[in-house]
């Protein structure tokens, strides 16, 4: 991150829109210059259901960040999430030319071969193609194949796909809010840049980002992405469970959850009570705080069971010595890490917050800011200032992403 231009990340979530303005420093860290956080209206589980409300929410968040940073935002990296996201690991193969030497064109063709091997229906498109590993003549673990002697090049590629209409609708809302979409990035990949350490990525780590509408999963092994997924159970389900059981509004349930909620019912004294306002908005009554915790614990247990089952299906269940890192608004309740560890085979679990930053660090100190920060970091790594022109060619954007991943994974090589 070698230049001083501002970069911007916009996390478009089901419950909040988070805009982060930053600037790359000579020390190689992101200086946070502005933050905008506004409630999200018009989305459900990462999908736009009310276009006008979504546009207004984005404008409010962007406006806050502009005023704090003292700049006008022209373009941004935008997050993509939702249970429409799927991923797979595919291998592409190409035979080298008569000289028997791997060229840059061979690398591109091998990656494209992997992309072509993925069967897509008309309503889906590839979001990311991320190289995990190269092999030259069957010799795996090759970091930089260009220039090596060999007759065959294999590329193992992690391919992420999503619903084309969902992706397009998010992009259009951002554009109509007055911001150019420079690149769309899968949110757990962005979050990982803000909260994971290199050691965790190398040992193998499971990132679990509990948002309002979906819980995003990203598994890293040997310092590269191995698996990504999203499940449609997250923080809003916890809030709705409380609203139904206690017969209170969703707004009151969210307030009750944030103020008195805990992830472990056993940590709450049995006689403690809290005052809640009924759905009629007038009558008030006392409810057991332990009852609130029991509802929260039951739903969070379901989330972690679904996450653990998904990770085991991916084949990475016993390979993540780096443990689990939680992020997102749903990770903030007391004892959430303890509950996750108990459900997920006593793995080590911590709550991840944005790290390695300068500037307005306190303004992005919560897990709810992690994705926005990660998107800004990705933009800085790619050298995409807020006034950079939009990349119109999809494949050129894919290559830019691959180059940035290469630089992070193999920092001692040139791209």
| Low-pLDDT ranges | 389-402, 405-415
- How far apart are the first and last residues' alpha carbons, in Å? 14 Å
Q: What structural class is derived from the secondary structure elements?
A: alpha/beta
Let me know the average pLDDT.
90
Helix fraction, binned, reads 25-40%
CATH architecture classification of the domain at 86-163:
2-Layer Sandwich
Would you state the CATH class of the domain at 86-163? Alpha Beta
CATH topology of the domain at 86-163: Dna Ligase, domain 1
What is the total tally of β strands?
19
Shape call: globular
Tally of DSSP helical segments: 11
The run of helices and strands is EEEEEHEEHEEEHEHHEEEHHEEHEHEEHH
Spatial strand sequence of the major β-sheet = 11-6-1-2-3-19
The major pleated sheet works out as: 6 strands, mixed
Global Rg? 22 Å
Secondary structure blueprint with pairings:
Blueprint: E1 6-12, E2 16-24, E3 30-39, E4 43-44, E5 47-48, H1 51-69, E6 75-80, E7 86-95, H2 104-116, E8 124-136, E9 139-142, E10 152-163, H3 164-176, E11 180-186, H4 187-195, H5 198-203, E12 205-210, E13 215-221, E14 224-231, H6 235-246, H7 250-260, E15 273-277, E16 284-288, H8 289-313, E17 324-327, H9 336-343, E18 349-351, E19 357-359, H10 370-381, H11 394-409
